[in-house]
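Exercise 7b. Backbone tokens:
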């Protein structure tokens, strides 16, 4: 039985977003949930998942020749959304308690997979790639440029519908590959 502070994940784990335990953070739950969550609250011309976005960020980190830590952090940077969903940036930044919950959860996820959330260089790279992908996703999927200047990207992402099973499988394969020695 669960209480109001827990959710039941895809794998059947009872998970508290308010008190996240590393042992309850399972790769299959992250990959499954992110493959089914739509970016931009569904305000794109087609379904484009958070999982696809994370894979695009991972590909960009690879194209830039960045470290395994940056590539893994890019893959995981929105993993908290598997447990607390996505909230658009304008709303998120006006919900200070949500930001505290999200950071605690995201930091726990990073640590669970061997990433130091206090590593400023890794997080700076992740943020730059995330913002660049955000710009290009919005341009490709809604025709709207978010910024005045176009951020450069080194990869060639495909922005469009991809079946969730494919996204989930790719996400898991990459996550396992990046963490097999951990």
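Sequence design result:
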């Amino acid at each position: 039985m669960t209480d109001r502070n827990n959710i039941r994940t895809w794998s059947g784990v009872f998970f508290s977003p308010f008190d996240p335990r590393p042992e309850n953070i399972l790769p299959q739950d992250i990959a499954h949930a992110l493959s089914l969550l739509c970016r931009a609250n569904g305000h794109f011309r087609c379904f484009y998942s958070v999982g696809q976005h994370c894979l695009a960020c991972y590909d960009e980190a690879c194209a830039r020749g960045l470290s395994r830590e940056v590539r893994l952090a890019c893959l995981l940077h929105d993993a908290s959304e598997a447990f607390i969903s996505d909230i658009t940036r304008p709303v998120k930044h006006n919900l200070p308690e949500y930001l505290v919950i999200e950071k605690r959860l995201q930091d726990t996820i990073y640590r669970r997979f061997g990433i130091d959330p206090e590593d400023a260089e890794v997080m700076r790279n992740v943020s730059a790639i995330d913002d660049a992908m955000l710009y290009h996703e919005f341009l490709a999927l809604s025709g709207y440029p978010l910024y005045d200047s176009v951020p450069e990207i080194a990869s060639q992402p495909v922005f469009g519908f991809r079946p969730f099973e494919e996204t989930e499988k790719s996400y898991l394969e990459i996550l396992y590959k990046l963490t097999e020695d951990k």
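Instructor comment: DSSP finds eight helices and two strands in the chain. The first strand starts at residue 7 and ends at 8.
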